[in-house]
Structure formats: C-alpha cells, structure tokens
Design goal:
The complex is a heterodimer of chains A (176) and B (445). Chain A is an alpha+beta fold. Helices cover 40% and strands 15% of the residues of chain A. The longest helix of chain A is centred in the C-terminal third of the chain and has 21 residues, at 112-132. By secondary structure, chain B is mainly β. In chain B, the strands form 7 sheets. In chain B, strands 1, 2, 3, 4, 5, 6 and 7 form a 7-stranded mixed β-sheet that branches. Classes of the chains: A alpha+beta (176), B mainly beta (445).
C-alpha cells in the first residue's frame, strides 16, 4: 500500500511537469499560459488548478487519468484504458481551448528503433479512440518516445507495466 | 583536419600478400601470416622495441606512438606483445642490421622498428616490419608525415599497415566511431552525439544534451552523420557535417515522425522509417533533389534498414509475421524475403562491409544477443549474451562488431563493447560516461 502511494505521488509530480511544458506545438500558436514556463523547469501549480476542479488540467491528469497502459508488445486498448479515454474525450470536448499531444512509450525490453515505432502505434491507438469519440483530429498530435523516457526504473514487470503507456499531455491553446 | 593530414602521407605501399600460407600461426615453415578465418587461438608474438627518437623533442612522440601501435595490435587479440624485459639485444638504430637470431631466441615472430622525428609542427614517422623467422622485411619500409597533433592517427596507420601485411586484410585502427554519449539517471537520461577514435581517444561532442538524439550513422566516407533528434519536439531526421558540426533537419516525405536514417551506398540519399497514423514504413529521399519514394507499404512496422555494400539490396526488420524478424528486399522496394527463422525476435540488422554477413540483435527468453548470419539466414552464430545487448556496427574491415550493452536495474547504464566476428575478444570500449548506438566509420584516408 505504502509503495503504491509513493508511486502515485511520483506519477503526480511527473505529470505536473509534463503538463506545464510550453511550446508543445512548436510555439507557433501562442495561447500557452506564460505562467506555465517557470524558471525552475516549469513546475508551477498555479495554472493547473486543483484536481477537484473539473475545469483544471490537474483534474484531467489526476482525476480522469492522463495515461493508459499496454500489455507487452501490444497497442490494443484494454477495457480499463477505454474507460479512461472516455473520460479524456469528454473533458476535451468540454474544453475546446485545449490541445493534446499523445506520447507513446515502450518498456526497455526491445530495440531502440522498434520501440519508437511501437510507441507511435500506441499513441495512435489513443488518438484514433479519442477521434472516434468526437474529439477533432486537428487538436490531437502524437509523438513516440520509444524506451527513452521510462517513469519507473527497475528491470522487472512492476516497472515495465508502468512504462508501456500512452500519456495525453494537454496544453492551453487554440489551433493555429 | 583529415584533408591536410592525408596529403602528407608518402604513397601507401601495397601490403605484401603471400598466398598458400594456410599453416597454423606458430608453424615456422611458411612466411609470417595470420589467416583470420582459421580461428586464432594463440596470438602471434611480436616485439616492438620503442620507436627511436631521431630529433630532440621527439622522445615523447616516439614513446607514445610505439605504445599506441602495440595497443592497437594487441587489442585485436590476434597479436601478443613480448615483454621488453626479455629482449636479448638492444633494438639498435632504425637503419641498423637486425640481429634476427636474438629475436628468434625469444620467439618474436614479428619485429616492428620505428623512428620519429619532429621539425617545427611536423612529425615524421618511419617504420619497418620484419618477419623474424624468414630473416627479412615483410613489405617495404614506410614513412608517414603530418602535423604533430595527428600523432595518434599516424600510430594507427602504422598498426593498420602491420595488421594488413600479416593478415592480408585491411585494418581498422585509423577509424572513428560516432555514438550517443549518455549521462544522468535512467528516468532523466541526457543524450548527446559524440565522436571519437575507434579506441576511445580524441572524444568530441557534436550536440548538447538539450534534446534527445538517437542512433547516429556515418556516411560511407565518414564526412557526415545522420541521426534522429527531438529538437523540434518530435523525432526528425537530422544531418550533421562532421568537420563543421553544422546540422540541419532533412526535409523528407511528410509524416508524423521520421527516424532510423541510414545513408545509401553512395551517400546521396537517405533510407529511413516514417510513421503516419501509427504505421511505420521505409522510405528513401534523395538528399540533393529532395525527391522521396516509398519502399515498403504494409500495416506492420518496417524499420532499421541497412544497405548491402553494393547498394543493390536492403536488409531491414519487420513485425509483419507477428514478431520482429529480418527481411531482405531490392534497394528499390518490392517483395521482401524473410531470412531469420530461429527462436525469438531479430532486429537492427547491419550488412557487413565485406557483404558476407549480417549482424543483428536477437531477443530470446529474456536475454539479448548480438549475432551474425549469412545473407540467406544460414549459419546463425550468437557472439554475445547479456541482459541487454543492442545495435551492432561493423569495423571497416568486417572483422569486429561494436555494440551497446546496458546493465540491469534502477542504476542500469549503457556502455560500448566490441567483439570479434569469431565471438572472441569481447572488451569494453572506453568512454567517459555512458554510451549507446555506436556507428563505426570507414578507414580514414
């Protein structure tokens, strides 16, 4: 139990960082909250709001859940993943002033370039699902990090299962 | 740096190749010769008494050059340096008669004599290679001239000559490796491109760690490097000019991400993976005209291409069968044929510069291997085994494979290793920090 809480806290910290990263769309569209880019690496809770506020990015990442997990070498969405994505799509439909980049990731058990392609598959599976639920495709981009950005660092399934993920990173901004 | 140096070289002498020397290395009947294919178990003993310093101020160069020559040769596992403490006679001056009997008595099969002189910023290195038991020179004496800052390269050139004259094959010492230098913990790893000599010397960083860089590849002539960069926030293929460290993103076919770039045989186009809508296929783009063509068209992942040395075929990996396997197709695309049929998954195929073998990464039962197979998939041979071995690259002569090995667990880190194609002589390549994704460049001119 204690371990789980700790892991959840780490996830929380990571997603906070990810959500405040500016210029996800190359900085061409403006609209990104300038407060988000703090000098301390962008960890700034102010624009995120509280996880209890349904209109806040924090609510999206923590209450709905910004990530879905995959089984080994697969990009098929599990029922749990679809439930999470249903929540994401509803939020995105209600908050048209947000864009999303879906990051696809793989665990370390694979070659680098194959894992890049696998991450692209996973990110796309999420994107396609969100589009099928009505989110406009031009608000959704994908990027794959392959095995380059693990969040859990041990070399067994307890970590691998967390790393095989697709994370929906939202940022305020309109389509340019 | 490369250009002026090469112009100083005296004409390279062709290695003296003696046919029909299929006798074991230690046999004294034939001329001095190692045939690498025969599986050398006993390294050939050589004596390399220090190079003679012919001018004041050249002593350090003489000592350093002799050391690097000996390290190059001994590092192959094919040669063994005889301890100078066992020498019977002093080496004498560079031009002096060689007392072959004294070298035979300590079983030195090869004797390398050298001399070094410095004038201004110019360095002249001379050497002669002797076949001790034949009692004569193997090949002719050679003189190399260049600037003093190129002393290591001159030492590598001498060692390449010795290697080549004794094995009948070209060497690989005067070559460089481009790779990804790694630092920081596993969940915050910083990566930047770096280039170094094949033995880890003269390391130079080519990018900063501001964005992820992956899987660099040398051009056939070693003047440029292709790699994948996240500088734009998304993986894109970049091209870097090694001499000026100038870089640019390559305009490819439009797509969500491009990665896994390799130069074509002539260095004029790039073959790479492009992902769109979650599907990854292989493409080719002409670096001059920007014209693109699609090489594969399948709903599966096609990546990690490698061209045959004659440029006519591409080996690549695909999971069209359900798992990662190796396939070969024409360089223009077309129907591929699968060549890997063993247990497990196969990735990162790299065609040997000799054309005879394909090196690959294999995953089987939770272990990773570097292996080689013939181009028809036969005679598969695993060279290594570990928690994570990945990404082989060939030495310019196709005799050695370098790869990255990552250790297990939260503190896991990646370093470079090399291993002979025979599976022997596994050793770490020294780098200042972590290292991955090596690409071994050509012999320098």
């Amino acid at each position: 139990m204690h371990m789980m809480t700790k892991a959840a806290l780490i996830l929380l910290a990571l997603s906070t960082t990810a959500c405040t990263r500016p210029d996800r769309f190359g900085g061409a569209n403006g609209g990104v909250d300038p407060n988000a880019a703090g000098a301390n690496g962008g960890i700034n809770a102010a624009p995120l709001g509280s996880a209890g506020d349904p209109n806040s990015p924090a609510y999206f990442s923590q209450t709905i859940g910004d990530r879905v997990l995959f089984v080994v070498d697969q990009s098929t969405l599990t029922p749990t993943a679809m439930a999470t994505l249903d929540g994401q799509s509803q939020w995105l439909l209600q908050h048209a002033d947000y864009l999303a980049v879906i990051e696809g990731h793989a665990d370390e058990q694979g070659t680098r370039e194959y894992n890049l392609a696998l991450g692209a598959r996973r990110a796309n599976a999420v994107r396609e699902y969100l589009i099928s639920k009505g989110v406009p495709s031009n608000r959704l981009r994908t990027v794959s990090y392959g095995k380059e950005r693990p969040i859990a660092v041990c070399s067994d399934e307890s970590c691998y299962s967390q790393n095989r993920r697709a994370v929906t990173v939202i940022s305020a901004g309109s389509i340019s | 740096m490369t250009r002026p140096f090469s112009t100083y070289f005296a004409a390279l002498l062709a290695a003296v190749l003696v046919a029909g020397a299929a006798t074991p290395v230690l046999a004294q009947s034939g001329p001095l010769r190692i045939t690498i294919d025969q599986g050398i178990m006993e390294p050939l003993p050589f004596a390399a008494p220090g190079f003679q310093a012919e001018t004041t101020g050249s002593e350090q160069f003489a000592a350093d050059i002799a050391r690097v020559v000996a390290e190059d040769l001994a590092g192959t596992g094919l040669f063994r340096q005889i301890d100078p403490a066992s020498f019977i006679s002093a080496p004498g001056g560079f031009g002096d008669q060689v007392a072959f009997a004294d070298w035979r008595a300590i079983n030195a099969q090869a004797l390398i004599k050298g001399a070094v002189s410095v004038s201004g910023g110019q360095l002249v290195v001379k050497f002669r290679l002797y076949d001790v038991f034949a009692g004569g020179e193997l090949g002719e004496g050679m003189q190399l001239a260049g600037t003093t800052d190129g002393w290591r390269r001159m030492a590598h050139k001498v060692a390449d000559q010795v290697y080549s004259r004794i094995t009948g094959e070209s060497g690989y010492f005067d070559s460089r490796v481009v790779f990804v230098s790694e630092s920081g913990p596993k969940d915050n790893r910083q990566k930047r491109l770096a280039i170094m000599d094949y033995d880890g010397a003269n390391l130079q960083y080519l990018t900063d760690s501001g964005s992820i860089v992956l899987a660099p590849r040398f051009s056939p002539s070693g003047d440029r490097v292709l790699y994948t960069s996240y500088e734009s926030g998304f993986p894109r293929i970049n091209l870097l000019d090694v001499a000026t460290v100038g870089r640019r993103e390559i305009q490819t076919q439009a797509g969500e991400m491009t990665f896994s770039p390799r130069f074509s045989h002539d260095g004029r186009s790039v073959i790479y993976s492009l992902s769109n809508g979650g599907n990854t296929d292989l493409y080719r783009t002409d670096l001059g005209t920007g014209q693109s063509s699609q090489l594969t068209n399948a709903p599966s992942i096609e990546t990690a291409p490698s061209l045959s040395p004659d440029g006519s075929q591409i080996v690549f990996e695909s999971d069209r069968s359900g798992t990662q396997q190796l396939y070969i197709m024409s360089a223009n695309g077309g129907e591929p044929r699968r060549i890997s049929f063993g247990d497990g998954r196969y990735g990162t195929p790299v065609w040997s510069p000799r054309g005879d073998l394909i090196a690959f990464t294999k995953q089987n039962q939770g272990r990773f291997h570097i292996g080689v197979m013939r181009t028809d998939g036969s005679e598969e041979r695993l060279l290594t085994a570990s928690f994570l071995d990945e990404g082989p690259t060939w030495s310019p002569n196709g005799r050695v494979v370098m790869f990255a090995r990552e250790t297990q667990g939260a503190s896991g880190a990646s370093t470079l290793y090399s291993v002979d194609v025979s599976g022997r002589n596994l050793k770490q390549v020294p780098t200042p920090g972590g290292a991955s994704d090596p690409s071994w460049g050509p012999l320098q001119p």
